[in-house]
Amino acid sequence: MDRDTSCQLFALSFDAGRPADLARFWSGLLGWETVDDPQDGILLLPSDDTGFRLRFLPSQEPKTVQNRMHFDLTSTSLEDQQRTVDRALELGGRHIDIGQLPEEKHVVLADPEGNEFCVIGPGNNFLADCGFVGALACDGSQEVGYFWSKALGWPLVWDQDQETAIRSPHGGPKITWGGPPVAPRTGRDRLRFDLAPTADGDLQAEVDRLLSLGAKRIDGGQDDLGGVAMTDPDGNEFTVLTPR
C-alpha cells in the first residue's frame, strides 16, 4: 500500500443541537442529498466534485466561540452572489459581523446554529477553477497545512507568507490555512475532519502513520463505532474512522 495516500477525507462533521434542522439548511443551500448516519446523525452526499460528505451529529454543547474553519461559497456574478445570500436567509441563515470591511467583496453569514460561512463575490482568482463550494478556510499554521498535505496525499496549491492551501488531485474545494496568529483554542471543536482508511487500509497502521507525521492521540478518545480520536499539530480534533 502507498503509505502516502492510505486515508481519505470522509466527512466534515458538525456538532449540532438539532442535526436534522442543520442538515436541512445545508442540503437546501448546497443541493446535496441527505441519508441516515450510523451514529444517530445525518449525512449529506455531495452532488458535485466536493469529494467529502457533511456529517451532522447530535450534541448538547452550545456554540460559544467562532469556528476555526468555514466554507467559502463562490459566485459567478453579483446577482448570483445575491441569490445565494437570499437562499441562505430564506433557509434560516443570518448576517453576522466578524470584523469584515465594507469594501470586501464577500458576505459573511451564519447557519441556524451560528456556524460561519462566506459568500464570495465574482472575480476571485484564487477560487476561479473551483465549484460552488470553493474552499474550506481554516485558522491554522503553515505546519498544519504541511501535515494535512501529507496526511491526505493532497498537493500544496499555495505556500506563501506562511499561508498554505491544499487540494485533492481530483479537484473540489481547496482547504486553506491563514497562518499566524492562530486564535487560542477554547473547548471542543464543533467542526472536525473524519478520515477513513482506504478500502485495504488498517486502522492501527493509519493511526501510527498520522502519529509519525505529528498528530497526537487523545487519551481515551474513541467514538461509538470504534474510531480513534486524534489532534493535528495545531490541536484541532479529528477522528480516524473504523474501515467501512
Written overview of the protein:
The protein has 244 residues and is α+β, with helices and mostly antiparallel strands. The protein has a single domain (3-177), classed as 2,3-Dihydroxybiphenyl 1,2-Dioxygenase, domain 1, CATH 3.10.180. Helix content is 19%, strand content 34%. It has 4 helices and 16 strands. It has helices at residues 19-30, 78-90, 142-152, 203-213; strands spanning 7-16, 33-36, 42-45, 53-58, 69-73, 94-95, 106-110, 116-120, 133-138, 156-160, 163-167, 174-177, 191-197, 216-222, 228-231, 237-240. The strands form 2 sheets. The chain has an 8-stranded mixed β-sheet with strand order 2-3-4-1-13-16-15-14. The protein has an 8-stranded mixed β-sheet with strand order 6-7-8-5-9-12-11-10, with helices on one face. Strand 7 (106-110) and strand 8 form a beta hairpin. The model has no long low-confidence stretch (mean pLDDT 91).
What does this entry show, briefly?
The protein is an alpha+beta fold and 244 residues long. 19% of the residues lie in helices and 34% in strands. An eight-stranded mixed sheet has the order 2-3-4-1-13-16-15-14. It has an eight-stranded mixed sheet with strand order 6-7-8-5-9-12-11-10, with helices on one face.
